[in-house]
């Protein structure tokens, strides 16, 4: 109905949106090269891209002149994408603002000359600029705007061409064909077309002229949408001064940006405040009455244009192009599939978003933390029972994952081993979970310190959960029940992001975990992130996630540490573990320790990667036995620079002394003293686990700065089970919070509780009646619990 766009202030927003969507979806448009992209990750495939620059992006805050810094960053990004082989088009505003600056300057200059001639200098201060007509400003500004674009793109060896259009160019078939042909030819010649409405001559738009299935050109939003569909663009990026669509009034405490907008949704959305400049821009939404009475007085032009382009087969992202922290990479981030702005998709997202999952986990996690320790322990024990009872279901899902991985042929034998589950592994997991349940009895709410500050004023420091944990692990499904149990024991909410290789196994294990949690009504405390969420996007949820724990390759950990700029990351990026064989080492100890450290499980992060030997050991029986043992175990040896200098025919010289092999390979290097060994480890190690084999190790133990420092013991002891922690979420090489194997204690923080009786700070002032006592009170410590160590391979 033509009336579907004529909204009165009494129609609810979801009704307006529903009518708008019904109207737009009735347009019969077919995109020759396929439908729009369903997921953000697919935007990397976009070949032809239209970038719409709103007036607020292009112009300065005073609306007179251009924002040259923002414009330069946009040009740089567009040129970079163009040079990657993409076809870029720009729909730009700014002619009016640029012309206004020029005309104001001319008027002021003219006035100052006339006043100087006729009235004297004393009246210059009374000069005023008359209201400037927009069409005149556009006419004065078009040439200067284009000259600026041309000069900027020339810096990147990119050619541009200006195209001015009006509504008639799209409604007249011959003119539309001519426009299409011109743009196609420009793109073929690797030229960036810069398109704008010819505001110097364009007539006012006719109301509702776009309701016959063809959107009219009222502003640059509608122009960009019409152009994107006409040119069969893969992606339309609409930049303005708003972040995107919100689920409640922007600026309110509960407002959340909508990441993916599905046109079929009838949810209430908020359109933000009106853009400060431009003919189109944002339409305001006003609130009448309570929160359930949201109304709109006008439609949102960008949403209407975006929906029209989406139905025409072009994917759309609405984002902020004015924020100083993101302007320099907002366009490239969108093309790379990162979560920026609001992405319009015709495919309705399956299940809750990761933001919704995080919110559910946090709310349920607070209830979990408030449970009695026996209740949390019962949940973990029930999960342990389910691992045994449902082992056939778990192993069937795991077999599916193993078969898919084997057919794909992309996983190494070590990763396939980690992916595989067996009845023995499940039984071992169940035992470990019961140990965690036992340890959870005295974890949350334990008093660490008590102080009597004054009479009837006592201060306590107690353990509390950290909050929401994000654990990212690769092809290792046994990690899910382990970290779930540790999170439950410590009262933390958990987001688990597993590798796609173990998708079926993880799904079953997560269902069992939620079944166990449900016995005390906290089913949502552990969430499995199974959407197409990029790890980097998860690392940006700094207001929702409190700690990230990566479990996987060094490359995964490094990427997460680099991406998580505002969220602490617990873990290590590399496990470059050293064994130093001193001149006073005993032969029998050396052989056993080196063999176990390197050959027991070479892919583990606590396996030996570099063997340091004292110079005096070379050409001795001990050194010959070490080499013979390594050869017997089929360990490939790489020679360090000094070791290679002692050999006539040396093994392959190491490319880097900072190498984590993760296989039956190691580096051998020679040092002159214990101090030189310490210095070498500090320079080339990763502060994970380092070992000395000798009879006198005090200097090594005191001076070496690693998370784990061992004397006459295998590096493989750096493990939560072997330390008696019950289980571990990883090994941390950080200097704060937790270090080394991190178990239950590492997932807790503390808070201070002060119990008073009407005390005020004034009571302790110079003229007050109370004095500080600061007496330490006894704290009853829990009895240590015995745990059986289990290898975690």
From TrEMBL:
Aldehyde dehydrogenase domain location: 353-620
Signal sequence, renumbered to the chain: 1-32
GO molecular function terms listed in the Swiss-Prot or TrEMBL record: ATP binding; glutamate 5-kinase activity; glutamate-5-semialdehyde dehydrogenase activity
Domain Aspartate/glutamate/uridylate kinase intervals: 47-285
Gene Ontology cellular component list: mitochondrial matrix
GO BP terms in the entry: L-proline biosynthetic process
Reactions it catalyzes: L-glutamate 5-semialdehyde + phosphate + NADP(+) = L-glutamyl 5-phosphate + NADPH + H(+); L-glutamate + ATP = L-glutamyl 5-phosphate + ADP
Main location: mitochondrion
Superkingdom to which the source organism belongs: Eukaryota
Keywords: Amino-acid biosynthesis, ATP-binding, Kinase, Mitochondrion, Multifunctional enzyme, NADP, Nucleotide-binding, Oxidoreductase, Proline biosynthesis, Signal, Transferase
Cellular compartments annotated: Mitochondrion matrix
Classification via PROSITE patterns: PROA (PS01223)
Subunit structure: Can form homodimers/multimers.
Its biological purpose: Bifunctional enzyme that converts glutamate to glutamate 5-semialdehyde, an intermediate in the biosynthesis of proline, ornithine and arginine.
The protein, known as: Delta-1-pyrroline-5-carboxylate synthase
Phylogenetic classification of the source organism: Eukaryota, Metazoa, Chordata, Craniata, Vertebrata
């Amino acid at each position: 109905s033509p009336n579907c766009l004529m909204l009165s202030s009494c129609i609810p927003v979801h009704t307006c949106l529903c009518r708008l969507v019904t109207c737009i979806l009735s347009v019969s448009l077919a995109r020759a090269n396929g439908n729009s992209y369903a997921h953000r990750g697919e935007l990397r495939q976009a070949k032809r891209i239209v970038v719409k620059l709103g007036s607020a992006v292009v112009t300065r805050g005073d609306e007179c002149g251009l924002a040259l810094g923002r414009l330069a960053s946009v040009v740089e990004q567009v040129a970079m994408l163009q040079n990657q082989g993409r076809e870029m088009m720009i729909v730009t505003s700014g002619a009016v603002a640029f012309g206004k600056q020029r005309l104001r300057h001319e008027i002021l200059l003219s006035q100052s000359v006339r006043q100087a001639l006729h009235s004297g200098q004393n009246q210059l201060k009374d000069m005023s600029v008359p209201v400037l007509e927009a069409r005149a400003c556009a006419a004065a500004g078009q040439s200067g705007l284009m000259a600026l674009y041309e000069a900027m793109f020339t810096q990147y060896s990119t050619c541009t061409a200006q195209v001015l259009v009006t509504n008639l160019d799209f409604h007249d078939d011959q003119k539309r064909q001519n426009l299409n042909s011109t743009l196609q030819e420009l793109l073929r010649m690797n030229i960036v077309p810069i398109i704008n409405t010819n505001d110097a001559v364009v007539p006012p738009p006719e109301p509702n002229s776009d309701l016959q299935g063809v959107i009219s050109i009222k502003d640059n939003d509608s122009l960009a949408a019409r152009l994107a569909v006409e040119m069969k663009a893969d992606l339309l990026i609409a930049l303005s001064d708003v972040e995107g669509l919100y689920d409640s009034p922007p600026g309110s405490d509960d407002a959340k940006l909508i990441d993916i907008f599905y046109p079929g949704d009838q949810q209430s959305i908020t359109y933000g405040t009106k853009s400060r400049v431009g003919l189109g821009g944002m339409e305001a939404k006003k609130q009448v009455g309570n929160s359930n009475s949201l109304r709109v007085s006008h439609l949102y032009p960008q949403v209407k244009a975006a929906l029209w382009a989406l139905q025409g087969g072009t994917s759309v992202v609405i984002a902020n192009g004015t924020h100083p922290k993101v302007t320099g990479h907002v366009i490239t981030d969108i093309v790379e599939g990162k979560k920026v702005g609001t992405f319009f998709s015709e495919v309705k997202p399956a299940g809750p978003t990761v933001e919704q999952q995080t919110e559910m986990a946090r709310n349920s996690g607070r209830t979990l933390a408030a449970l009695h320790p026996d209740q949390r322990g019962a949940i973990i024990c029930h999960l342990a029972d389910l691992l045994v009872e449902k082992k056939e279901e778990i192993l069937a899902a795991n077999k599916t994952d193993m078969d898919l991985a084997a057919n794909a042929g992309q996983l190494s034998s070590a990763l396939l081993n980690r992916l595989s589950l067996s009845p023995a592994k499940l039984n071992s997991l169940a035992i470990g979970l019961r140990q965690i349940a036992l340890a959870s009895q005295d974890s949350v709410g334990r008093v660490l310190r008590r102080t009597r500050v004054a009479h009837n004023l006592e201060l306590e420091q107690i353990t509390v959960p950290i909050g929401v944990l994000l654990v990212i692990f690769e092809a290792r499904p046994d990690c899910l029940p382990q970290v779930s149990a540790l999170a439950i024991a410590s009262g933390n909410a958990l987001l688990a992001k597993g590798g796609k290789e173990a998708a079926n196994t993880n799904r079953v294990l997560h269902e069992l975990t939620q079944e166990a949690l449900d016995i005390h009504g906290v089913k949502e405390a552990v969430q499995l992130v199974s959407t197409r969420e990029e790890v980097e996007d998860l690392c940006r949820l700094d207001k929702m996630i409190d700690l990230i724990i990566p479990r996987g390759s060094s490359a995964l950990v490094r990427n997460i540490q680099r991406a998580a700029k505002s969220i602490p990351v617990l873990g290590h990026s590399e496990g470059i573990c050293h064994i130093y064989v001193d001149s006073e080492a005993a032969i029998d100890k050396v052989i056993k320790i080196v063999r176990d450290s390197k050959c027991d499980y070479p892919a583990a992060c606590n396996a030996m990667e570099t063997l340091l030997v004292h110079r005096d050991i070379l050409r001795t029986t001990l050194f010959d036995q070490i080499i013979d043992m390594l050869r017997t175990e089929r360990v490939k040896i790489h020679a360090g620079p000094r070791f290679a200098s002692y050999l006539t025919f040396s093994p392959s010289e190491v490319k880097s002394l900072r190498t984590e092999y993760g296989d039956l390979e190691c580096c051998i290097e020679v040092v002159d003293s214990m101090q030189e060994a310490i210095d070498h480890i500090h320079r080339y190690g990763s502060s994970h686990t380092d070992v000395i084999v000798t009879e006198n190790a005090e200097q090594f133990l005191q001076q070496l700065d690693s998370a784990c420092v061992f004397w006459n013991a295998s590096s493989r002891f750096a493990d939560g089970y072997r330390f008696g922690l019950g289980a571990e979420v990883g090994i941390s090489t950080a200097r704060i919070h937790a270090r080394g194997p991190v178990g239950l204690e590492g997932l807790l923080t503390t808070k201070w509780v002060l119990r008073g009786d009407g005390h005020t700070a004034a009571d302790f002032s110079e003229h007050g009646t109370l004095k500080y006592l600061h007496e330490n009170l006894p704290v009853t410590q829990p009895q240590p619990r015995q745990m059986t160590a289990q290898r975690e391979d």
